[in-house]
Amino acid sequence: MGIKSTVTHKKESMKNIYKIIILFAFIIGSSFTMKAQQEPLYTLYRYTTNFYNPAAFGLNERVEFKSNFRSQFTNIDQAPETQSFYLGVPVNDRIGIGFTAIIDEVFIENATSLFASFAYKLQLTEKTDLYFGIQAGGTFVNIDFTDLGLGADPLFAQNVNDFNPNIGAGIYIKNEKYFASLSSPRILTSERIDDDSGVLTSANNNLQVYLSGGYHLPISGNVIFTPSALLRFSDKETITDITGTFKFLERFEVGANYRIDRSLGGLLYISIQDWLEIGYAYEGNSSDINIEEDGTHEVGIALKF
């Protein structure tokens, strides 16, 4: 019994050490992730502009509800998952309001962002409109150390709960042939350092700027080719998506997406009815990082009333 007890104790000790190593890797990684990648990535970015540009709420001609579910590295335990929702309501032909909720989960961290948006349309020409948008809200951040299963370890005895208020702004220009977007969904830089009860945590949310655009090229009466790009700038890096899609019969769209030095994937977007749209995207890792994973899946649903 004594030998078995000793072996069991050693296994539990190694398990706790392993969890602590993962924890510190998470904290170190968070200092980069929250500086350079504090906003979610979307392969279906052309259809989810409202999540990163409040001016896009002016585009809604009807009440619209949209949801997006994104699961990264699907065979890796506690890999990043993002759930995004928005409700857009046109007040009149010039003003639109909206509400967004974005839930990010990775390892022991959960971040929930809630924002309210206002958009205004200015008609530049008969076929060209310019939209301005602002948003205000904040992010609730929770780091749950109890998920580590370390028992009464005083170093991780206190969870982290914080709220970071923020504002965002953007502009969007739309023509029947082209579109362009410039925005920053989180303008304010926030920092958090908490060393109460011996627990030290830190996080930084720095300014990120989104620039995107595309052009509609008719191939025939029933086929339209749309090349587009999304660039996301931060003080650490620039993430670039290049996408090309073909739209058939005004009903369904199929294409490919390349996130430079990161991933390669495809997407499908279908207008089932004039009130229901469904999209799906898949990404495979194309970076130098060698990890065994089953790719990233993204599903979007839009309802119009």
Write structural notes for this entry.
It is a single chain. By secondary structure, this protein is mainly beta. The protein has one domain: monomeric porin ompg (Porin, Beta Barrel), CATH 2.40.160. The chain is built from one helix and 17 strands. A 14-stranded antiparallel barrel has the order 1-2-3-4-5-6-7-10-12-13-14-15-16-17. Strands 8-9 form a two-stranded antiparallel ribbon. A hairpin with a 4-residue loop joins strand 4 and strand 5. The longest helix is centred in the first third of the chain and has 35 residues. The relative contact order is 0.16. About 9% of the residues have low confidence.
Question: How is the secondary structure organized here?
Answer:
Elements: H1 2-36, E1 64-71, E2 81-90, E3 95-106, E4 109-123, E5 128-143, E6 160-175, E7 178-184, E8 190-194, E9 201-205, E10 209-215, E11 217-218, E12 223-233, E13 238-248, E14 252-259, E15 263-273, E16 276-285, E17 296-304
